[in-house]
Amino acid sequence: MHLCRLLSLLLAALFALFTCCSTLLADDRPSRYVRQLPGSDIVIVFVHGVLGDSETTWGTGKAYWPFMLFGDSTFDGSDIFVYSYPTSMWASQSPDELAEDMRVQLNAYGVSDHRRIVFLAHSMGGLITRAFLVKNRAVAERTTLLFGAPGPLQGR
Q: Is 0.85 topped by the overall pTM?
């Protein structure tokens, strides 16, 4: 009896620890425009990978890819958007469910309304983007590029 109580307390403590850690690992940064210009007809969308987030996937501490586009005249006039989704070890959404979340967020922010859309995705971000485009043909028709960088388990 005493052993059962001890085991149940231990399991409860482990569950609390894992819940705490997964909350700390989750990407709490919301999706957002990094640059939004009036009348822009093109948007570049960054989509991070699994267990990454919208900051660390695209930055090194000193450099942040979405900000680096500001200094390159090639991207003048382009809106820049960073899509973010939960990626903790306990996140349980499938790529299809995350594609629906992407649809909701891109519509809410008006990203899907742009005439030309470019996606830069890392790892699972590419799977999410592909699932999104398959289900949203009108956006797919206006997507001029989807570039996906492989994750650590891809391409081997």
A: no
Alpha helices in 26-155 (DSSP H): 65-68, 95-108, 124-135, 137-141
What is the Cα–Cα distance from 116 to 35, expressed in whole angstroms? 16
Per-residue pLDDT tens digits for 27-41: 467 999 999 999 999
Least confident residue range of 1-5, 45-49, 108-112: 1-5
Range of the domain at 38: 27-149
The backbone torsions φ and ψ at residue 64, rounded to the nearest 5 degrees and listed phi first, read -130, 115
Whether 35 is in a domain gets the answer yes
In a domain, 46, yes or no: yes
Task: Please indicate, yes or no, if residue 10 is contained in any of the structural domains.
Answer: no
Is residue 36 included in any domain, yes or no?
Answer: yes
* Dihedral-angle region of residue 148 (phi above 0 means left; psi in -120 to 50 means alpha; beta otherwise): beta
